[in-house]
Amino acid sequence: MIAFGIMTLIPDSEVSYLTEIAKSAKDFGMECCRFIPSQINPHTQSVRGKKFDSKTTQWVDDEFPIPTILYDRCFYGDDEHSKQCLPIVSWLKSRNDITFLGYGLPNKLELYDSLKNTVLAPYLPPTLAASNSDIILKELEAKEKIILKPINGSQGHGIYYVKKNDKTYHVKTEKQKQIISRIFPNKAKLLKWLKPLITARKYLLQPYLELFNKEHQPFDIRILLQKDEKGFWCERGRGIRFGTTGGILSNLSAGGSAAAFSEWTATLPPKAVEYMCSELDYILDKLPILLEHEYLPLFEIGVDIGIAKNGSIWILDLNSKPGRKVIFQTTPGINETLYQAPLIYAKHLYGMEQQERKSIYEKTLSH
After folding, report:
1. Is 356 part of a structural domain of the chain?
2. How far apart are the C-alpha atoms of 252 and 104, rounded to whole Å?
3. Does residue 363 surpass a pLDDT of 60?
4. Which InterPro entries does the record cross-reference, listed alphabetically (predicted)?
C-alpha cells in the first residue's frame, strides 16, 4: 500500500477533515497516517504519530517510516514549536524520495513582488513593507486610510485598519469575534502603540479598499482551486463570506457567515454579474500558471477576491493551505469530492517520476 502522510503542527488540527480523507484511503490503495514534523526521529528516520485503522475507523498511536507522499497542513506561527518544525519540513522537501502534494507559497509580500509585474498586476492592491513607522505615517498622510497585515498571517489574525482624522488617529481590529476600536489623540501616542507592533512581527501596508455591502458588512469571494486526477487545475466551488457589520474581516473564524455565489449574484444587475464573472475567469485561468512558473508545484489554492463599491476587483489573498468551510457550506454535494481529492491527486503523483515535479529545491518554504 502507498503510505500517505498528513502533517500538522497541532495533534488534533482539522481532525474531522483528516478522518474523512483517511476513511477513503483504502479504496485508493493507500494507508493513511498523521504526525507532527518534530515527531520524526532523525537517527532512525521513523515517526511517532497516528495511523488510521480502517476496520475500527479510529486513529491509533504507532511508529512508522516517513511516508513517501506528504500532505502538508502545517500552519506556522511565531512560536518556538513552529520555528523548530520549519527546518524539518524544509529538509523533507529537499529529499528526492519524498513527494509533497504541494510545496507551498511564500509570504504575502514575496507573493506580491512576484505577481506585480505580470498580467494580474491591475488586480493587486498596491503593497509596501511596513518596515518602519515613517513609511506608515507617510502613507497615512497620502491616503488617510490604510490596512496593516502580518506578512505571514492567516484567518485574519493581526489585521489593523488605521485612519487619520484631522488631529486624531483611529485604529480598528477584530479579536475573538469582537470589534476593538481605539482613538489615539496625537501622532506620538499612535507611534507608541505602532512601534512595538511592527518590531515584534513583520507587516505589510495596503490602501484601505471599500469592500463592504449595503449593510456595511465586509465581504469577499472565496474560491477553491485544486488539481484533478490528471494534474489539471479545476475549480471546486466559490462562496461569499460576510463579516460583522462595521468590522474589517469576512473570515468565518472571525464570526462571519457564508452564502452561495449564485444566491449573491442573483441580487445584482445582470451586466455587473457578466463583467465580474468574466474578470474572475481571467484571473483564475492565469493565476495557477503564474504561481507554478515562479514557485514549486502546488496542489490547491484558496483565492480571496474583493469587490469594491466602485466595482473594481482585487486579489486579496492567496493560500496554499486553504480552509474548506465556505465551500462545504455553499456547494451542495461537494463533501466526498473534497475528501477524496488529496488521495486522487496523490495517486496521480505516485505514477509520475518524482523528479519531474521538483528538479530544483530552493524556491520556497510553505507558510
Report:
1. no
2. 23
3. no
4. ATP_grasp_subdomain_1, YheC/D
pLDDT tens digit string along 322-342? 999 999 999 999 999 999 999
* C-alpha grid cell, residue 263: 444566491
Over the stretch 61-114, which tens digit does the pLDDT of each residue have?
999 999 999 999 999 887 899 999 999 999 999 999 999 999 999 999 999 999
293 φψ region: left (φ > 0), alpha (ψ -120 to 50), beta (else)? alpha
Range of the domain at 85: 2-100
**Which residue type, as a one-letter code, is found at position 297?**
P
How many CB atoms are located within 10 Å of the residue 223 CB? 23
**In angstroms, what is the C-alpha Rg of the chain?**
22
Query: How many CB atoms are located within 10 Å of the residue 2 CB?
Result: 17
Q: What are phi and psi of 208, to 5 degrees?
A: -75, 125
341 inside domain? no
**Distance in angstroms (rounded) separating the CA atoms of residues 339 and 336:** 5
Residues 269 and 220 both lie in one domain? yes
pLDDT class of 365 with cuts at 50, 70, 90: very low
Look up residue 55 and give its amino acid.
Answer: K
Q: How far apart are CA 15 and CA 13, in angstroms?
A: 5
